[in-house]
């Protein structure tokens, strides 16, 4: 893993990368993270998020299309700890997270569009490993996501970075 992810440098070196609209807050322990994308699409139900983080992450980034809901959190301290323990590099949530003080001390990159204290429903709804579109970008499983305090970029393949 390169010692530092710097998305402005990535954009300069790879002008064709997709850049998500600047909607996201960096709320996890690491300021920067990257990895191959896996996806969850759900709305106010984090059952599929819980399922995914319970599996080996192998350095991947879980991209959660929560429909941009600001009415509940799709990730909290317990699922973030499970994700970190299972080797996920990070989670990007187009929705809210909670327990942010604990998330900041967790060895998991986390970016989300907001925070909310209420937990989501658990109805077993949602989809995994599907193409999602939000923040002006379409993201598919197997692409590579790079995130830092400057923003989030997506590439069709792993990029060669100088670290």
UniProtKB/TrEMBL annotation:
<dbReference type="GO" id="GO:0051252">
    <property type="term" value="P:regulation of RNA metabolic process"/>
</dbReference>
<dbReference type="InterPro" id="IPR005493">
    <property type="entry name" value="RraA/RraA-like"/>
</dbReference>
<feature type="binding site">
    <location>
        <position position="99"/>
    </location>
    <ligand>
        <name>Mg(2+)</name>
    </ligand>
</feature>
<protein>
    <recommendedName>
        <fullName>4-hydroxy-4-methyl-2-oxoglutarate aldolase</fullName>
        <ecNumber>4.1.1.112</ecNumber>
        <ecNumber>4.1.3.17</ecNumber>
    </recommendedName>
</protein>
<dbReference type="GO" id="GO:0047443">
    <property type="term" value="F:4-hydroxy-4-methyl-2-oxoglutarate aldolase activity"/>
</dbReference>
<dbReference type="Pfam" id="PF03737">
    <property type="entry name" value="RraA-like"/>
</dbReference>
<keyword id="KW-0460">Magnesium</keyword>
<comment type="function">
    <text>Catalyzes the aldol cleavage of 4-hydroxy-4-methyl-2-oxoglutarate (HMG) into 2 molecules of pyruvate. Also contains a secondary oxaloacetate (OAA) decarboxylase activity due to the common pyruvate enolate transition state formed following C-C bond cleavage in the retro-aldol and decarboxylation reactions.</text>
</comment>
<dbReference type="InterPro" id="IPR010203">
    <property type="entry name" value="RraA"/>
</dbReference>
<dbReference type="GO" id="GO:0008948">
    <property type="term" value="F:oxaloacetate decarboxylase activity"/>
</dbReference>
<feature type="binding site">
    <location>
        <position position="98"/>
    </location>
    <ligand>
        <name>substrate</name>
    </ligand>
</feature>
<keyword id="KW-0456">Lyase</keyword>
<dbReference type="GO" id="GO:0046872">
    <property type="term" value="F:metal ion binding"/>
</dbReference>
<comment type="subunit">
    <text>Homotrimer.</text>
</comment>
<feature type="binding site">
    <location>
        <begin position="76"/>
        <end position="79"/>
    </location>
    <ligand>
        <name>substrate</name>
    </ligand>
</feature>
<keyword id="KW-0479">Metal-binding</keyword>
<dbReference type="GO" id="GO:0008428">
    <property type="term" value="F:ribonuclease inhibitor activity"/>
</dbReference>
<comment type="similarity">
    <text>Belongs to the class II aldolase/RraA-like family.</text>
</comment>
<dbReference type="InterPro" id="IPR036704">
    <property type="entry name" value="RraA/RraA-like_sf"/>
</dbReference>
